[in-house]
What does this fold into?
Amino acid sequence: MGKPMAKLKVMCGRSMHVVVGALTEAFQHASGHDVALNFATVGAIQKRLDAGETADVLVIGAPALAAMAKAGAVGAPTPIAITSIGVAVRDGASPPDISTPDAFKRTLLAARKVAFSDAAVGGSAGVYLAKLFADMGLADEIARKGMPQQSGGEVATRVAHGEADIGMTLMAEIVPIKGARIIGPLPAPLGNDTAYAAAVVSSSAAQEAGRAFIAALTQPSARSAWEAAGFRLP
It folds into this structure.
């Protein structure tokens, strides 16, 4: 008799939903394993884990996973992909200057409405941008014209529909939205990269299947899917 097929519960950062969804479908076909994907912001996943929820595999921010590995809660993390916060405008709009921090600041001051990921949701982009606006002395200005959104997809949608002149969120969340176009990452040195990693949870009963799932996300043939979704590979 062949090995019984495993049922895997995977908790994964929301910005990866398009590419991980596609790679998971291929993995299920090839392996026969059953995978239940749970997407949420990294902050929300952390809260659920702290409240006692369990999973077989975690695909979340590399620093959080490294801390969990140190505590013995997960096995050795595997680097998965990197994304950056991007600046989006509506397709066909002439791109504003974001080449330097000063130019970027002028662009934000000139914009009528600015959409961005809401820090209250707990996503890495929203938390970072809230601090960045404060550090740039723009907190009051952004409070007046800002359009905080529940997800990166909604940020890009506000831009695509012309409700916001400019939008900022993880590039991987802008890519799937038709009508929004990335004009670049935040200018150096303001940019911030978000690195994701994956690990099998130590208490999982499906260790082998969990490792096979992570291998499917990182196989060389998956590279083009990650890059098309707005990620760089480590």
